[in-house]
DNA sequence: AACGGCTCGC
DNA sequence: CTGCGAGCCGTTC
């Protein structure tokens, strides 16, 4: 009796041509490990601890009593019962929410406590998850951190990373980036970070074969700016930074199968206005609309969607009688081919880079993969060779109808390499 | 130990 | 009521 895998040539191909060759590559990456400056993280922990005590004092002062800032339950009592903040949103469990977006909203209404809580939350996240924990994860024998990559966990084909997760190291804020500064190269070596530029949007252009989007990428345009120009009806050079930010949210929203409601929340406009943006987007990029409709239909008819390389995601809930569950399956159907194709491509690239490094005898090794990025540790005198050749090699992992660009940076630490 | 709420990444 | 993950802390059992 043959299973789905043996019966399906495209799945066999994904197995034998992508996943199996990747196994020894992942093993090598895990064994290589990442060098981390424990002393620097230790200093940061001390500094963060001091700032947290300060913020705690401020919070107690505003609240007029002491409470556990880390407890959403206790915080809810202070905010909504004692200080009389309006309840803007509730959690799935029915309690008044204290999530970031809610606190930001309350802060705008001039309540002083939410801002202190937000600062406390973000710093305690950095301390608890990163600066305190990472030094404990250093292997005493190698002096490096060896994450585990999981090859068969995610629905879309991405890798995941655990113990510790090195795929969610902060980057967004200046405080967070300091943690990346603790990921360093060994003496005599440099870090090289190579990431695909907007890979999922490029895949969307390719899969949807939308003329406008293909054109934008082929002309090397800033695609968020180009989207803004189309949606807001202004010349490219007159796009404001707000318009570009909104267009970026629209582009990401499309990849995620987002609704007008979700977009409205994300960019801070009314639902009607958000719907107008979406309508204008689809009017300008009709190929994208047709592709999304095709994807939904295919998911419903075949019960699965697939990536460019034939990896499948089965979606039984696409037939659910429950509307919310069906909608969720439809969003996954939209997202999975793009996210999954990106995963296929970087996996192929990892194998290609690994083969090249093994054959060339260069003193360089892959130490991290973060979904659209590879980080390598390279002997100093070979950095320029690597930097020149890794882009074309990674780009060649797929033959898309748009350029697949790779940006590569070098530095003494992971922050500098970006 | 398991779960909820929250927050970090792409 | 935008996709995919991992992990922290607080809370409950």
Topology:
Layout: H1 4-7, H2 9-32, E1 34-36, H3 38-63, H4 72-82, H5 100-108, H6 113-131, H7 133-136, E2 144-145, E3 148-150, E4 160-162, H8 174-180, E5 183-184, E6 189-196, H9 199-208, H10 211-218, H11 223-232, H12 241-255, H13 260-267, H14 271-284, H15 286-302, E7 304-306, E8 312-314, H16 323-360, E9 364-369, E10 373-379, H17 383-395, E11 406-411
Antiparallel strand pairs: 1-2, 1-5, 3-4, 6-10, 6-11, 7-8, 9-10
This protein binds a DNA duplex (10 and 13 nucleotides) through helix 4, helix 6, strand 4, helix 12 and helix 13.
Helix content: 55-70%
Number of strands: 11
Q: State the low-pLDDT regions, or none.
A: none
Based on CA atoms alone, the radius of gyration comes out at 24 Å
Distance between the termini: 51 Å
Mean pLDDT: 94
Structural class: alpha+beta
Largest sheet: 4 strands, antiparallel
List the strand order in the largest sheet: 9-10-6-11
Protein model, in words:
- The chain has 418 residues and is α+β, with helices and mostly antiparallel strands.
- The protein is 57% helix and 11% strand.
- It has 17 helices and eleven strands.
- The strands form four sheets. A four-stranded antiparallel β-sheet has the order 9-10-6-11. A three-stranded antiparallel β-sheet has the order 2-1-5, with no helix packed on it.
- The longest helix has 38 residues, at 323-360.
- It binds a DNA duplex (10 and 13 nucleotides) through helix 4, helix 6, strand 4, helix 12 and helix 13.
Q: What features would you highlight for this structure?
A:
418 residues, alpha+beta, 4-stranded antiparallel β-sheet, 3-stranded antiparallel β-sheet, 11% strand, globular, DNA-binding
């Amino acid at each position: 009796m043959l299973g789905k895998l043996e019966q399906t040539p495209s799945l066999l191909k994904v197995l034998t041509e992508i996943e199996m060759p990747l196994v020894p590559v992942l093993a090598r990456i895990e064994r290589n490990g990442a060098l981390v400056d424990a002393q620097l993280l230790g200093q940061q922990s001390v500094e963060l601890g001091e700032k947290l005590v300060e913020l705690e004092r401020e919070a107690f002062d505003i609240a007029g009593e002491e409470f556990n800032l880390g407890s959403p339950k206790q915080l809810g009592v202070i905010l909504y019962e004692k200080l009389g903040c309006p309840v803007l949103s509730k959690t799935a469990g029915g309690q008044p929410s204290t999530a970031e977006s809610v606190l930001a909203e309350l802060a705008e209404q001039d309540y002083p406590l939410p801002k202190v809580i937000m600062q406390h939350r973000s710093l305690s996240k950095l301390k608890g998850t990163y600066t305190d924990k990472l030094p404990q994860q250093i292997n005493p024998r190698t002096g490096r951190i060896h994450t585990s990559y999981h090859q068969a966990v995610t629905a879309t084909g991405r890798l995941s990373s655990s113990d510790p997760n090195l795929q969610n190291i902060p980057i967004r804020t200046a405080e967070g980036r300091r943690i990346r500064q603790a990921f360093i190269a060994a003496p005599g070596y440099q870090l090289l970070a190579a990431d695909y530029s907007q890979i999922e949007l490029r895949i969307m252009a390719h899969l949807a074969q939308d003329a406008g989007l293909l054109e934008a990428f082929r002309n090397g345009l800033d695609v968020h700016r180009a989207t803004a120009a189309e949606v807001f009806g202004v010349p490219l050079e007159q796009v404001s930074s707000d318009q570009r930010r909104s267009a970026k949210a629209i582009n990401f929203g499309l990849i995620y199968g987002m609704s007008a409601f979700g977009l409205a929340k994300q960019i801070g406009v009314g639902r009607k206005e958000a719907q107008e943006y979406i309508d204008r987007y689809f009017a300008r990029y009709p190929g994208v609309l047709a592709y999304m409709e095709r994807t939904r239909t295919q998911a419903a008819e075949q019960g699965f969607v697939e990536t460019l390389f034939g990896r499948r995601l089965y979606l039984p809930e696409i037939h659910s009688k429950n509307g919310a569950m069906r909608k969720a399956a439809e969003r996954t159907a939209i997202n999975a081919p793009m996210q999954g194709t990106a995963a296929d491509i970087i996996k192929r690239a990892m194998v290609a880079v690994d083969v090249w490094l093994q054959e060339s005898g260069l003193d360089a090794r892959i130490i991290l993969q973060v979904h659209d990025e590879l980080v390598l540790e390279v002997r100093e005198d070979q950095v320029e060779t690597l930097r020149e050749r890794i882009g074309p090699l990674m780009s060649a992992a797929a033959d898309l109808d748009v350029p697949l660009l790779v940006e590569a940076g070098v530095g003494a630490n992971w922050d500098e390499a970006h």
